[in-house]
UniProtKB/TrEMBL annotation:
One of its GO terms (molecular function) is metal ion binding. Residues 54-240 form the Succinylglutamate desuccinylase/Aspartoacylase catalytic domain. This is Succinylglutamate desuccinylase/Aspartoacylase catalytic domain-containing protein. InterPro entries: AstE_AspA_cat, N-alpha-Ac-DABA-like, N-alpha-Ac-DABA_deacetylase. PANTHER family: BLL3975 PROTEIN. Keywords: Hydrolase, Metal-binding, Zinc. It holds the Pfam family AstE_AspA_cat. Its cofactor is Zn(2+).
Length: 339
């Protein structure tokens, strides 16, 4: 089956995810909302409609425009899988926020908004709010499972992990946990509550099971993260019953979960710097710290000690500032809990 490229672009407001289509592989360009004549932002949609009926999986990447691991895996999946190998409908968006991707930034330069804070969006809002509205209603709402691929981006170093909705008492919670385990992350982050405005809170409100991933970041893709994201995505497809090819790793042993941590996963609750300076951490990602332990120190370039960064609770370090030059009120670290 040949690959179709739909050009020129069509408006995102006309998009319909037709899950009944079979045996087709295509890419589409969806135009967005900017009124700038020279605007080259468009939403890429890569679709593999399997030769047989099956589940509908949505994979998102690039919700933040400076996170590249997910973009890499989506492009690799699109070129490595054929409709004959797939059951159901696999729809992938490598840059869910094209504005931020073009700007190489966490937020949209058009309106300075963070796409991962405005779901389910607004049909009459700013370009980022309108984008969230269309993603919520045209993509997430029509999925049966959602995978959202993230990482630390430009400024933050984040532990490699898979996050999921934690509720052992419900079928929804069990589906999320089982998918996270199948992905193969050695560290799982369970959330009994999810902060509003996220893709995952959007999926949750629609009853769509989900997981997300995090990795180190730094606007570079580490080889180990590159393979973790790709192999994990293949394992998730297999877990959902969407692929069964001989080379899909069916005999592979899924990595054992070595640690499950908890919390709401809200990076907006990160501890903030009290001074401009140069941050030197004294712990590493996934270190276990106690209240009162020193996370690191902020120094002035004259050698003055400006702030001892002290842990305000017990927990596990899941994020550290990745760029040592720090500004006052910038996030420095985030802890998850062990229980």
């Amino acid at each position: 089956m040949g690959m179709q490229h739909d050009t020129p672009s069509s408006p995102i407001t006309d998009f319909v995810w037709d899950r009944s289509i079979r045996n087709l592989k295509r890419s589409r360009r969806l135009s967005l909302f900017s009124e700038k004549k020279d605007d080259d932002a468009w939403l890429p949609v890569l679709e593999i409609s399997g030769s047989e009926e099956g589940p509908a999986l949505l994979i998102l990447a690039g919700v933040h425009g400076d996170e590249y691991e997910g973009v890499d895996v989506i492009l690799r999946l699109f070129h490595s899988l054929s409709p004959e190998e797939v059951k159901g409908s696999l729809l992938m968006i490598p840059t869910a926020n094209p504005y931020a991707y073009l700007g190489g930034s966490r937020t949209s330069p058009e309106d300075t908004m963070n796409l991962a804070r405005v779901f389910p969006g607004s049909q009459e809002g700013t370009v980022t709010e309108r984008l969230a509205y269309e993603l919520h209603n045209r993509f997430i709402a029509n999925a049966e499972f959602m995978l959202d691929l993230h990482s630390g981006g430009t400024h933050y170093a984040v532990a490699t992990l898979a996050g999921y909705y934690h509720d052992k008492s419900t079928d929804f919670g069990r589906k999320c946990r089982e998918a996270a385990e199948a992905f193969g992350a050695k560290v799982l982050w369970g959330h009994s509550e999810v902060a509003p405005g996220r893709t995952v809170s959007s999926a949750q409100s629609l009853g769509i099971p989900w997981i997300y991933t995090e990795a180190y970041g730094g606007r570079r893709i580490r080889p180990e993260d590159k393979e973790f994201y790709y192999n994990g995505s293949i394992r998730l497809l297999r877990h959902l019953g969407m692929i069964r090819t001989p080379d899909s790793g069916e005999n592979e042993n899924v990595p054992i979960v070595s640690r499950t941590i908890y919390g709401d996963g809200n990076f907006d609750k990160s501890a903030l710097s009290e001074a401009d300076g140069f941050f030197i951490p004294e712990v590493s990602l996934l270190s276990e710290v106690r209240r009162g332990d020193r996370i690191g120190t902020i120094y002035g370039l004259d050698g003055a000690e400006l702030q001892q960064v002290i842990s305000d609770s017990d927990g596990i370090v899941v994020m550290l500032l990745g760029t040592p030059a720090v500004r006052k009120q910038e996030p420095i670290y985030l802890l998850a809990s062990l229980a």
